[in-house]
Amino acid sequence: MKTATSQEIKKELQHLSAAKLTEICLRLARFKKENKELLSYLLFEEHDEQGYVASVKTMIDDEFAVVKVSNSPYLLKKSCRKILRQTNKYIRYTSVETTEVELLMHYCEAFRTAKIPLYKSTALTNIYLSQIKKLEKLIKNFHEDLEYDYLRQLDSLRT
Question: Would residue 32 count as lying in a domain?
Fold first, then answer.
């Protein structure tokens, strides 16, 4: 089966009725959890971006609260990657660039406040430093005032 391009899908969707579009959306939501989460974001949370950011930050904090620092470096690494994977999934749903920066910064802050022994494991260090590098690249695209504010926050995460 050949998959249609986004442009072809867009043209075809413009010819459908509202009832048919609703039916297609509900069918998509049935097949994959991520599709349902994306639809939930678009329908219920897109209009309140700050509320969405707050809920994702709460999720990050809750996940880091569960991580046990006494665990082996392997389990710590696994837990940190799992939280990062979830954070990136929620970032993909939104198209607001400041949301991405805020969530990644919060991830790094939660990483630091969880008392994870960052420099005892190369893998943990690499996870953390790769997010710092990613934040640096993202921040360079902002207006200079916003860039300055975010860079100050980023500097506090580096030390």
Answer: no
> What is the per-residue pLDDT across 26-85, written as a single tens digit (0 to 9) for each?
888 888 888 888 888 888 888 999 999 999 999 999 999 988 776 688 888 999 999 999
Report which residue type is found at 158.
Answer: R
Residue 120 sits in a domain whose CATH number is 1.20.58
Q: What is the pLDDT of residues 90-125, one digit of tens each?
A: 999 988 889 999 999 999 999 988 888 887 789 999
Residue 131 CA to residue 158 CA, distance in Å, equals 11
d(CA 118, CA 135): 18
Residue 139: how many CA atoms within 13 Å on its side-chain side?
23
Of 116, 21, 26, give the one whose Cα is nearest residue 73.
116
The model's pTM is: 0.84
Kindly state whether residue 3 falls inside one of the protein's structural domains: no
